[in-house]
Amino acid sequence: MCSGRVLEGLRRVAAPFGEASSEAIPLPFAELLRDAPRSYAALAVELVYEGYLLHYRSSRVLQGATAETRLLAGDHFYARGLGLVAQADDI
User: Fold this and answer.
1) pTM, whole model, 2 decimals?
2) Strand-pair partners of 20
3) CA distance 32 to 57
4) Is the pLDDT of residue 11 over 60?
């Protein structure tokens, strides 16, 4: 999965929680996993990482959200990432 598709996936997951950034953002795990044999891996790891960022740092994707929204969105991102792994029966 290319970085563009990963970024699109992150923005799609962020949409219900507020305004998603339209700027290019760093996707360190997508870059590392670009040649991974599992096509979902890059998006799954980036979703989990974004969940972490929403809880403990600054989101790369979600702009101007309240603390409560960031907490809820972080849980959602984390769950979506783990869901991709679980759907692939790769746990």
Assistant:
1) 0.90
2) 62
3) 21
4) yes
